[in-house]
Amino acid sequence: MYDPIAVSNESTVVAEYVADQAAEAAYQSEADLERELIRLLQSQAYEYLPVTSEAQLMANLRARLESLNTITFSDAEWQQFFTERVAGTNDGIIEKTVRIQEDHVQLLKRDDGSVKNILLLDKQNIHNNQLQVINQYETPTGNGGGNYANRYDVTVLVNGLPMVHIELKRRGVDIREAFNQIDRYQRDSFWAGSGLFEYVQLFVISNGTLTKYYSNTTRRQHISEATGSKRVRKTSNSFEFTSWWADAQNKPITDLAAFAKTFFAKHALLNILTRYCVLTADKMLLVMRPYQIVGTERILQKIEISTNYKQLGTIGAGGYVWHTTGSGKTLTSFKAAQLASKLPSVDKVLFVVDRKDLDYQTMREYDRFEKGAANSNTSTAVLKKQLENPGARIIITTIQKLSTFISANKGHSIYDGHVVLIFDECHRSQFGDMHTAITKAFKRYNLFGFTGTPIFAANSGSGGNPQLKTTEQAFGEKLHTYTIVDAITDRNVLPFRIDYVNTVKVGTVVDKQVSSIDTETALLAPERVSKIVAYTREHFDQKTKRAEGYTLGEKRVRGFNALFATASIPAARRYYQEFQTQQKNLVSDKRLKIGLIYSYGANDAVEDGALDEEGFDTDALSADARSFLEAAIQDYNTTFGTSYDTTADKFQNYYKDLSLKLKQREIDLVIVVNMFLTGFDATTLNTLFVDKNLRAHGLIQAYSRTNRILNSVKTYGNIVSFRDLEEQTNDAIALFGNKDARGVVLLKPYGEYYKDYAEKVTELLAGYPLGTPIIGESAQKEFIGLFGAVLRLQNILTSFDDFTGNEILTERQGQDYRSVYLDLYADFRKEKKADKEQINDDIVFEIELIKQVEINVDYILMLVQKYRAERGDGDDKEIRAEISRAVDASPTLRNKKDLIEDFVDSLSVDGEVDQEWRAFITAKREAELDTIIEDENLRPEETRAFVETAFRDGQISITGTGITKVLPPVSRFSAAGGHSEKKQNVITKLGAFFERFFGLSSTES
Fold this sequence. Notes:
The protein is α/β, with parallel strands linked by helices. It contains 36 helices and 24 strands. Helix content is 44%, strand content 13%.
């Protein structure tokens, strides 16, 4: 086997730029600099055009468009085309930008009545476009002209239209003067005459030594905000948003001559203009940065090479892009998806995001790229329809929805097509199971991941499949790297400023990697919480720069806002309460506006550094935690005149509104546990107060909420840490600043693991023989620790071929022990929280391991089939025992146990198991639903429709009118409060019914 050689079109960004060594010694004037630039452009096949007036510019445009489209305009045709399709009187920068980016084919009505397509740009074959360079162009003044006569330095014309403008200052002059001069042109003269200079998409500013580029939006925004002319969204609006050009190693190319040879290389410039600019839903033009372009092109090259070399469906066909948090990964990943969908060999591109991101962060953007692609409906029916529609080339979906689709549609034809899957954040906790499901289902795929914080050997957990521990093991080789160090150096994100505030003076409280409840209780002492809140209030204005004002959209605001990260829900509540207490007697404008948000997370802490992901599941909260959250949301409603609560839909809308208030700087501080610490972007956020243990990728993600660039007032991301996180911070920054961090976990030799496994299993069989009850709490805990260790070792050993046939525990013993283990675990969970601290930290972790053993309905049916084939009928007692064990070992199947056992009893001798199962479940489902309808006196048709919707959507909707239609007429005003009581009772019964039958038949889609 030979490694394939990459044969591709020229890359837009050079792999490595080596500067010329010859140093010039002579003084260089601005005129000399300009001459040198034009000479370099001419040497790269740009035609020099001595144009100085608008009439000449228009005549040249006509000739270039005729040449590009092989047509000759009559004077009447040209006049009409120019005034209607190129330079309409009401067209401004936005309309002309839309024309170039999205509408570059314009219609010409010919004199003979026929219609012809006219290209302003050839985006298919970019080398058909003609590049020219003009200099010292003087703007018209007087009638229809500009306010002042301006003379522009150098402009690049593409097919006769000014598309790139270069403003030069001599060496030794601040480059910002060039930026400010372009502002003046926009105000005074770009619109002058027929406004052709409003077609400029990109600006380049240089003083010879330093050279930067930016999009026309940056200039337009800056001017609009300076004059307060109209409402504009605050984004790229100042010098802070200009970009360096660089090579693929992220080394900036700053000298004008070097910039001209690379950025202005014909294929590079035309690629940037036609492929690597993005027009957003708000008509903002974003021009991609060099590392974003490299990341995109490496993915496209990998797709082409792996297709040619027949590697599809293997890890060699994929890879991951490591671009640090805050560097614009979503834009890069979507652009890669968009361009991949245009490759002839590709049938579908699936762009997979987390549900939170899709619903709230970038929904409008995704939808703008591909109308209707980003459908946040939880039903997989929409996804199924999109996958079956040959016209839908690119589909945005959530991890959750794709997972449901795969499990519900075995053998679907889409699995045979060439499918490119791009994961926007590939470190998400859901990914492990998804990975296995995808690689089993799809045959010809490319799998790509984008992440700001990859999982390396150094920050991988000790659990899980040892072959899927790191990002590299799951996705394949690293395709491009842009580290936090690169981003801070380039000023694409802000540096961090960290304050460590010591809060424990007497005695030492050790913050362990996974804190025990003991430690957390000590850290939540009322005196400590009170002091931290006082400190936060005292330093809040200073940290969030409340003394400094700036324009945000159409309003003036002062300073920034902050998040307060706490270790747990009780901690979040304690802090919220303390802020309320300390601010009680203040006048309203002196009070900080404080929000609180948390939801159910599966674990309090995760040992590998990941932050636990909280969904929107408020039902799983304890009654106490939920009622506290409800009260905090009522405080929010009072402050902002809203009407949210903790019911499913309204809580999601609260999350959405809270994130909007953060982005618009309308709230001062939000107290969180894990929410908003990953994947949330608000440029107005500049401070994170931390009272929780963070490490590795979780730490970088949390810190990175604060360092998005906004304007010249925001200079740092501030971290105020009330715990000693210095070592963890240094380790994380060292790890994620290291381009060469190892991506593969090194396993010890097989023999070492096996020896350990043999010893532990011997101890298990001798100390806890099956069938003998385990008496006493200490013995039970010892058993949990021992069996947990066996499970972990077994999990690692299964990745070695040598282990097959050498297992000591039989499958049956494994299942029996697992049943005992889960039973004991359930008992310990019921114990009071105060006792929890005595349980070894490993327990929760190993329980997570158990959940990875996927025992689902397919597995059960396979068992039934196997035993029946071996024994000839379904009556064998062995089937019953084996199936009972399998069901006991699966937490998700326990409430379905009686259904499964009844089915085994009802099985015929030679029928199709799958068909019989479906028929059995359908009959059972109908019978049990009829019983509920009868017992609760529900409306039959409405109830059936309500339940069908739940199975289709994958959840019972307890809000809205659906549930109300089901209920029998009850007086809302009866003394016993009959209506709400009845509603709650029905929801409970239908919820249990749904849980029991969901996932058991293939009727859900």
